[in-house]
Every structure is written in C-alpha cells, then in structure tokens.
Design goal:
Number of strands of chain B: 30
Bound molecules: flavin-adenine dinucleotide
Oligomer: heterodimer
Number of helices of chain A: 11
Strand content of chain B: 25-35%
Distance between the termini of chain B: 59 Å
CATH class of the largest domain in chain A: Alpha Beta
CATH architecture of the largest domain in chain A: 2-Layer Sandwich
Number of helices of chain B: 17
Order of helices and strands of chain A: EHEHEEEHHHHHHEEEEEEEEEHHH
Structural class of chain B: alpha+beta
CATH topology of the largest domain in chain B: Aldehyde Oxidoreductase, domain 3
CATH topology of the largest domain in chain A: Uridine Diphospho-n-acetylenolpyruvylglucosamine Reductase, domain 3
CATH architecture of the largest domain in chain B: Alpha-Beta Complex
Shape of chain A: globular
Strand order of the largest sheet of chain A: 4-5-10-6-7
Number of domains of chain A: 3
Number of domains of chain B: 4
Helix content of chain B: 25-40%
Largest sheet of chain B: 7 strands, mixed
Strand content of chain A: 25-35%
Largest sheet of chain A: 5 strands, antiparallel
Strand order of the largest sheet of chain B: 3-7-1-14-11-12-13
Chain lengths: 286, 741
C-alpha cells in the first residue's frame, strides 16, 4: 500500500475544507471495507484519507413522518438488527442480512456501501424498490436523489466532488406491501449474487396497484426494472403475464462474464429470478 | 469389545490447542531476529518469454532497499524436491506466468513492492503451450531443452515432447478383453487445478548467523526442505538448521522449498535476516496447487456386469516445473482403474510440462483426480448395461485374495462391507423426491511410510519428556505422542511434555505427509517408551540390587514381581540424580498390503431451471483400524469431506492463456460452514492395521470419493453428466439445455 495522510475532521465544515484542499488526492473513508481492499490491490491510491468517524450526526436511525432516516455512518449490522427498521421496513433488514458475513456487516456503513456503487451489492435492491432517496450535502447546500438514480456506472455515482452522502430516507411502507428478495448463490452461501432480484408490490382484488422491481449483478449499475413494472401495473395477474413481464428484463440487463457465471447464463437467470420474485409478490398465497 | 487401552481410543484435547486459540502459538511470521527485513519477488507477466535485459538501477537506488538480486546473483542455483528443475531466479527465460525473476530486500513490504515496480525488464515472448494434450504434439514448443541434465531427472526414452515421465502397465490381453465385451464405454474427464487454501501463506525467514544458516519456515518435512535449500544454495546441509515453528494449515502444500532459496540469497546480499511471506494473490498465482489432470477411460463390459477390459490414460499437467513434487511425479494413475476386478488392463500415465503454474502436493495427490474419473465412469458403465450403480459395484469390487486392476493383492479387503455400510446409513434405496438424486463414490488408500524418531525421558519430578523433530501442521501428531506415552507409561497425560527439536536432532526424519503421521510416530513413540522402561528397570536393578527379570514397570512405580516390593520411579531418579531415556526410530517405507476403503454417498437436489445443485446430505463410511484420538480422526473426516465438496462444486484456479485469473479468495471460493449439509459418518472396524496399535491412515482417504459421489448424484437427479469439475450450476444448466435440444 502507498503511504497516505489520515485526517479525522470533527465537523461537516472541516470535512468540506479538507475535500476542497486536497481535491483529487483525497478520498473519504467510512467503514473502509471496500476502500482498503482496493488500496491494497493498488486499484486505487489516495494521498489523503478523510475519515468520517468523528463527524457528528452521521450515524443512527430515526423514524419520522416522512419515513426512516438512516445516517450514512450507520453500520450494516446496526440497520439489520434495528427494531425501528424491523418494524417499519422489515424488507430492508432482510436484504441487509444477505450482505457478506457478519464480520463485514459489523464494519461496513450504509453510506459507504451506496457510494461504493458496485453493481453486485445487495442493498440497492431494497432501496430502489422501497423508493428511497439519499441526501447529498456539499458546501453549497443539499439535494435529494432517488437511489434508483444514484448510480451511473461500475463503481460510479452522481455524487459530485466535494459532496457527501449524509443519510438515506426510506418513505413509509404502505400496509400490505409484499416483498421478495431472491439472491442467487449457486457457488457458496458466502458470495456476491450471480444475479439477484428485489420486488415490492401492492395488490387489490387480484389487480396490481403498485410494483417495483430491481435487479442486482445484472448490469453496470443496480437496475430499476420499470419495463417489468409497466407491463403489470393496473392489470390482473396471470402466470402468462408474469412470465412475459419477466422476459422483458432481457432487454435491459447487461451482465459481466465473471467467476459467478457467464454473461449469457446471468441473462437467462435474470429472467428466471425476476419471474420467481414476481410470483412471490403477486401470486403466492394472494 | 472392551478396550485394552486407557488413553488410546479416547478423545484427547490438543497439546498446542490452548496456545493456538489464545494467540500464543508461534508461526514463522512471529519470529524476528534483530534487524529482520522484508523480501519480495518479482513475478513474470508472461507465460513463456526470453529475458533480454534486466535493469535494477532504480530499484537499488530507492531508499530503504538493502538488496536487489536477479538470476545472475544466485550462482546458477536450481531447486526442487526430487527433480531439481526450478531456477532460484529465472536467468534468461521464464516458463510460466508468475515465475520469480528478481527479488528485493527492503525495510518493509511496501518499500520492497515499490522497488520491484522499479525493475525494468525487456522480454521477447515465446510461443507457449498450456494444454497437456497439446504439449505432447510434435509441434509443441519444448519447455526444457536440457531436461536430462537436471539433478533427479530420469527422462524416459522416446517420450513425446515435454513428457518427462511415462508409466506403462499392461496386464492380461487388453485387445482380447475389449473383443470379449458386449458394450464399450469411453469417456474423458477433466480435473482443474485447486489450491490448498491454508490460512497461513507460505512463509520463510533466513538468518545467516555466523557459520549457521538459521531457518524458520512452514515446512512439515523440514529435513527434506533443508536438503532442497542446501542444494539450491550450494552449501553443506549440516550448515543449515530449521527451527521449530507451528504450521498454519498444510493440506499437502507445506513441504516445498517455496521462497527459501531466494530468501537465502537475499540474506547473503543484504547481510540481514530476511523474511518473505506470500500474499494470497501470489499464493493463488504461483505457489504449488493440486494438478490439472485429464483422464481418458475406456472399459469393456458384458451385459452381466463383468468388466472385461479397462484402458487408462492419465495425463498430469505438471506445469512449468516438476520440482514441487516430492517424487517428481504424482501418483493417482495407478488408482484410476478403481478397486475393481478386471482381467485385462492397460495404463499409460504421463507427467507433462506446460507453460502454467507448477503443481505441487495437495491432500492425497492424484487421487481425487483418479477417483473422480473412475467413479463417474463406473456409473456410466453401469448405465450402459442398465444396471444399478450400487449393484454393479458390489459385483465388481475386489474381494479378499483377488488382484486389483493393476495386479496388487490386498489383505483384509473391506470394500463391499464399507460400501454397504454407507448405503444403509444413507438410505440408498429409500424413495426420492423429484429432481433428487443419490450418488456413490468409493476409493482406497493405505497409509504411507517413511522414517521418524522419538525420544522419551523420565525425569526425577515424575514428568516425562517426549522429544520429536516433527513440525506440527495441525493434524494432531503432538497429541498422539502424548496419548501414546501416557498409555505406555501409565501416567496422566498432563505429565507428558512435548519438546520439538530443530533439524540438528537426527540425520533424517520424513515429517508429516502421505497419511504416514500416525503410522510412523505412534511406532516411534511406542518403541521409545518401551526402551525407556527397559532403561528404568536396568537402573532399578543396579540401584536396588533387584534381579532385572523380577522387575516390572507399574505406572508410577517399579515393582518386584516376586516380593511385591515397589519404589516410585521418580524417587529412584531423584536419588540417583539422573534421568532415563529411550529412543524409538522407525524406518518403514513399504506399502502395506492392506488398505483402507472410503465409501461415500451424496444426496443432492437439482433445480432444473437454473442447474443449481444443493447438497442435501452426505454419508461417509470408512474402514478403520484402531482409532487413537476419535475427535481428531473425525476432524480429518469432516475436513476432508468439506475440501472434497469444494472440489466438487466450486473450487477452480481458472487459467486463461496460462495466467491464473482467480487471484483472490473472493474469486476463488471455498466452502464455508453454511455450505455443508448434515453429515453422517460410519466406521467399519477392520481387524488389521499397522504399528503397535494396528492403525490405518485417515488424513487423505476422506477427500477422494466426494466429488464423484456428488457428480453421480447430479446425474441420478436430473439425467445429465458433468465430466469436468467443478460441477457448477451453469454447467448443469448447459448440459440440461443440450439434452433438451
Ligand atoms: C469480503 C467482502 C464481501 C462482501 N460481500 C458483499 C455482499 O455479499 N453483498 C454486498 O452488498 N456487499 C458486499 N461487500 C461490499 C460491502 O458492502 C462494502 O464493502 C461496504 O458496504 C462498503 O462500506 P464501507 O463503509 O466499508 O465503505 P468504505 O470502504 O469506507 O468506502 C467505500 C467508498 O465510499 C466512499 N464513501 C464512504 N462514505 C461516504 C459518504 N458518506 N459519502 C460519500 N462517499 C462515501 C469512500 O470514499 C469509498 O469510495 C463485501 C465486501 C467485502 C470486503
């Protein structure tokens, strides 16, 4: 690893100053689980690491009228075990329980995970289908960006230089919302997904009121599968309709060949698992 | 059966266990003579290339760098275990991606790495060959032009290019055998390279301390490794001393010279103690993995199940060098016809050089490859004649007094009993849900041989010292020692202390490996205990003036058998101010005539839409001798099966254009506890075994039949066969697609 300076600002203001001062040569560090691995492999070098651990107000989970506010520095494990999350959005806790191992979850942070923007990560499946937004703060103010629009490419987001992700806001989950997260792990239980699909839905009298579908490990970014949603919302559910809607993901996925499967296999599996997730939220026991 | 033993046969805690779990145990990386610096090697970025020039000027100028060496600085040193064909550092040619070309010693690892980045090398790429079949073609590039000159090399006459060992066996009349057959089945199986994935990476430390070369390294065969180092460095073996250290996992891979020769030259050039520890990328790229093997099998069978002929071609991809194998080649070919009766057999076993990472030893070298091929093939042959795979095996497995496929006659053969025990425990014939299948794998192996020494010293304080040259790699030898001494001297295990000596201890000790540990070292310890008792009785006779033939050893005491008088031996020793000792030395390399069978049954379900294989349960049956330490014995079974599951379903060092691409443990996956299904172990007691306690080996047998059992279960579940490991979901999915088309 290359030598670097380690900074521990104690306010947002100081953080912004450090970011301005060191520009391209600086990088923020939260849990460090992603960043340190990349630095060790020389995939990435930084002269200055700015640790967020002493910046107040970035950690913790609050339930408010507009939903759950999850601080960027909240650890994965804390979110997963939080009674507030488990009662307001159990689906979110469930998806987080699929991330890596408990050792990683004890260290990795919610904000670091989102900013890392590896398309193989699980949490966006929940955030996208729960229509969560992130708050991005800079010296010049703040903005809210839907998680569905946060990612721009492999390991890239719309977060600008000098900007910081401070929290994720998950709107209240409507009663009766059905959810499913299917993480396909054909090699070992301890792995990133070959593909994964998250879905949330509300049904009334056999008709789809609302449907959100997200795909993981299927493209350069986590995917919001509106093509699937558009085919089913407002319609009554039939096995044929589900099958046909699932097939629509073929047009939007663009998976990589890697050790978890070839691109063509993942494409086929994206369809299978989308269909299975749809069956779960639209059909099973309904 | 009432045990005749008090200690042997009861589970015993590990001698070094507490130190390990409290972090006190010392491994190579924990030693640091004053002034120790870090060494690191530069790896070739080409699979085959000529080195035109090396410029180390900038690396040498980097502050914190103490030495930079290349092939010119190692005096033409070559190393290897049996065949010395590996240059310490490549001189003018590299033969695999990852080969060591230059090395640096610096204040810390990061500086060493930066110095390596500053070394400039000009290469001229050469045509390369990666596939073992292609390497045998007349047009293939030849890796070693001067192979016959290598120390330890016995090049076969008239061998194809790159083949450095060819074994041929012809038994009966193979052509007549095939002519007699009703059906002929021919298949090719492919086994990938896999890594041992020990927790402790290869670690070495060398300190040139005056006249002596002080070494710390994770070798479980330190005497052999000392020879390899001395030969490479061209120094007398006696000048080198390997110091005791624990070994953090081995699985066969921890007896190679590794970076020791490089480290020696770095220590010489820098005048400092030098430590080198591979990172896991280097491990996966260029350590000593299990070999890639291609197995071609052809069998003739009659409708009644009689095997009339079997032809085996066993092609071992040695990689670029042969030096990581203790015998130059790996076994396995001799087992690739299986433990079956077949009158006519032919074997061609070839070890061939290619431009890929050299293979080394891993748990039961060659056997998981052989067992996978022959056990899958056995199911395919059974299917071809419409016979149930279990029935077919019961019909064809060897029995007492019969010759195995390659003409060995075994004693106390429990092949069928072990298989039936597994079948019963697994409920082999019980009803199955759709897409659920069961598969069988069976194989056998006798314990290996070698030589070992132990000394036992009775001390005046009533404790007993067991002295050994074994460097423990986690399989429990120290604990076995303590049990044997406790048993034979009838004392509490707590009173037995284990002392590990450096390599000045004896002339030669084989160390651990080849399932020899329990065979060799229980015998050495047993003999040492008996010798110490004899010494003690002699002392008692002299001191107490008792007739020697009237003295018996009885736990804490020596007792007169005629009068019943007794004296505590601790008191006797205290009085004489002395200790008594006995040595046990055993040298026994013969392959025993009895073996140990392992029969395993996997139950899987297959998702027909995705190809995903779920292992539902696993049954493993073993024909065993006396079990010294049941918990350790079970540990070897569980660990072996788990490693076999990895081999079956997920592990593979992927190689593309000669380059290993699975360079992290995120890409190269091994099973975790969540991947392990409920397991059932069945022990079939055998009446035979080796040594004073009639033991059989267990370190290697459990891993072999796992993969074929799983592949056969997949075929049973869903009707498609995957002939190359690992059996991934995608391969099953593809096979299903092809079967439908
Ligand atoms: C062995 C292993 C297995 C894994 N398996 C999985 C898995 O199965 N599923 C899964 O989803 N993930 C998995 N991961 C990835 C894991 O989720 C991420 O490493 C983790 O979420 C990153 O969080 P962190 O806090 O450690 O981020 P860091 O490593 O600290 O930072 C990551 C990136 O985010 C930036 N950053 C951090 N905080 C902020 C902020 N507040 N604002 C703006 N930028 C910020 C950093 O500059 C850096 O670029 C695995 C990781 C490892 C190491």
């Amino acid at each position: 690893m290359q030598p670097f300076s380690f900074h521990r600002p104690t306010s947002l203001d100081e953080t912004f100053s450090l970011l301005e001062q060191h520009g391209d040569e600086a990088r923020m560090i939260a849990g460090g689980t992603a960043l340190v691995v990349m630095m060790k492999q020389s995939l990435f070098t930084a002269e200055h690491l700015i640790s967020l651990d002493r910046v107040p107000g970035l950690s913790g989970i609050r339930g408010e009228a507009d939903g759950l506010h999850i601080g960027a520095l909240t650890r994965h494990r804390e979110l997963e075990m939080s009674p507030v999350v488990r009662s307001a959005a159990p689906f979110l806790a469930e998806v987080y329980s699929h991330v890596a191992t408990v050792r990683i979850r004890n260290q990795a942070t919610v904000g670091g995970g989102l900013a890392h923007a590896d398309p193989n990560q699980d949490p966006p499946a929940a955030f996208i289908t729960l229509e969560a937004r992130v708050k991005l703060v800079s010296r010049n103010g703040e903005r809210l960006v839907p998680v569905a629009e946060l990612f721009s490419d492999y390991y890239e987001t719309v977060i600008q230089p000098g900007e910081l992700l401070t929290e994720v806001i998950v709107p209240p989950v409507a009663p009766g919302t059905r959810t499913a997260y299917l993480k396909f792990l054909p090699r070992t239980e301890d792995d990133y997904a070959t593909v994964a699909v998250g879905a949330t839905a509300q049904m009334q009298g056999g008709v789809v009121q609302k449907l959100k579908v997200a795909l993981i490990a299927a493209a350069p970014t986590a995917l919001s599968a509106t093509v699937v949603e558009d085919q089913l919302v407002g319609k009554s559910v039939t096995p044929a309709a589900i099958r046909q809607a699932a097939e629509a993901v073929e047009a939007i996925v663009d998976p990589l060949d890697d050790f978890r499967g070839s691109s063509s296999y993942k494409r086929d599996m994206a369809v299978v698992f989308t269909r299975r997730a749809l069956e779960r939220v639209l059909q099973d026991g309904a | 059966m009432v045990s005749q033993y008090q200690v042997i046969g009861n589970s015993a805690p590990r001698v070094e266990g507490i130190d390990k779990v409290t972090g006190k145990a010392l491994y190579t990386a924990d030693f640091s003579p004053p002034g120790t610096i870090w060494g690191k090697a530069l790896h070739s970025p080409y699979a085959h290339a000529r080195i035109l020039s090396i410029d180390t000027t900038a690396a040498k100028a980097l502050p914190g760098v103490h030495a930079v060496i290349t092939g010119r600085d190692v005096a033409g040193g070559m190393y290897g275990r049996a065949i010395k064909d590996i240059p310490v550092l490549a001189l003018d040619r590299v033969r695999f991606f990852g080969e060591r070309i230059a090395a640096v010693a610096a204040d810390d690892e990061d500086i060493a790495q930066r110095a390596l980045d500053l070394i400039e090398i000009e290469y001229e790429e050469l045509p390369a060959v990666f596939d073992p079949l292609e390497a045998l073609e007349p047009s293939a590039p030849v890796l070693h032009d001067g192979a016959s000159a290598y120390q330890g090399m016995k090049l076969p006459e008239g061998a194809p290019p790159n083949a450095y060992s060819v074994i041929k066996v012809d038994r009966g009349d193979i052509e007549a055998g095939f002519a007699e057959a009703d059906v002929i089945v021919e298949n090719t199986y492919h086994l990938p390279r896999v890594h041992q994935v020990y927790l402790e990476p290869q670690s070495v430390l060398i300190w040139l301390d005056g006249e002596r070369v002080q070494v710390w390294t994770c070798s479980k065969a330190p005497y052999n490794t000392r020879e390899a180092l001395a030969t490479a460095a061209q120094i007398p073996e006696e000048s080198v001393v390997f110091n005791p250290t624990l070994i953090g996992g081995d699985f066969g891979g921890k007896a190679t010279p590794s970076d020791l020769p490089i480290c020696y030259f770095l220590a010489r050039a820098s005048g400092r103690p030098v430590r080198m520890i591979l990172d896991y990328t280097e491990e996966l790229m260029a350590a000593n993995p299990r070999h890639e093997v291609v197995v071609q099998l052809k069998s003739g069978v009659k409708h009644d199940g009689t095997l009339t002929a079997r032809q085996v071609r066993f092609l071992v991809n040695s990689g670029a060098y042969a030096g990581y194998k203790p015998a130059g080649i790996i076994r396995g070919s001799n087992q690739a016809a299986g433990p079956y009766k077949i009158a006519n057999t032919r074997l061609e076993g070839i070890n061939v050089y290619t431009n890929t990472v050299p293979g080394g030893h891993m748990r039961a070298p060659g056997e998981p490859q052989a067992f996978f091929a022959v056990e899958c093939h056995t199911d395919e042959v059974a299917k071809a004649i419409g016979m149930d795979p279990l029935q077919f095996r019961l019909l064809t497995l060897v029995e007492e007094g019969e010759e195995t496929a390659f003409g060995e006659v075994l004693q106390d053969v429990l092949a069928k009993q072990t298989l039936m025990a597994a079948a019963e425990a697994a409920g082999y014939y019980s009803p199955k849900a759709p897409n659920v299948g069961r598969g069988i794998g069976i194989g056998d192996r006798p314990p290996g041989g070698g030589q070992g020494t132990a000394d036992v010293t009775l001390r005046p304080d009533g404790t007993v010292l067991l002295t050994t040259g074994v460097f423990e790699q986690g399989s429990g030898t120290y604990t076995t020692f303590r049990q044997v001494i406790s048993e034979e001297l009838q004392i509490d295990p707590e009173r037995v202390e284990i002392e590990v000596q450096n390599t000045d201890y004896v002339k030669m000790d084989s160390g651990l490996g080849g399932s020899r540990g329990t065979r060799i070292y229980t015998t050495a310890a047993y003999d040492a205990a008996q010798a110490a008792k004899t010494e003690l009785i002699g002392l008692a006779s002299r001191q107490l003036e008792w007739p020697e033939d009237k003295i018996a050893y009885a736990g804490d005491e020596v007792r007169r058998t005629d009068t019943g008088e007794s004296v505590r031996w601790a008191d006797l020793l205290a009085r004489s101010g002395d200790t008594v000792s006995g040595r046990g030395h055993i040298q026994d390399s013969a392959r025993p005539h009895f073996t140990s069978f392992t029969a395993q049954i996997a139950e899987v379900s297959v998702d027909p839409e995705t190809g995903e294989v779920k292992l539902l349960s696993f049954t493993t049956a073993h024909d065993v001798g006396k079990i010294i330490n049941p918990i350790s014995h079970q540990g070897q079974i569980n660990g072996g099966v788990m490693q076999g599951i990895g081999y079956a379903l997920m592990e593979e060092l992927r190689v593309e254009d000669g380059r290993v691409t699975t360079l992290s443990l995120g890409d190269y996956k091994v099973p975790t506890i969540r991947d392990i299904p409920p397991m059932k172990t069945v022990l079939v007691q055998s009446e035979s075994g080796v040594g004073p306690y009639q033991i059989k080996g267990i370190g290697e047998t459990p891993i072999g039949p796992v993969a074929p059992a799983i592949a056969n279960a997949v075929a049973d579940a869903i009707g498609v066969r995957v002939r190359d490991l690992p059996v991934t979901a995608e391969k099953v999915f593809q096979a299903l697609k092809e079967a439908k088309a």
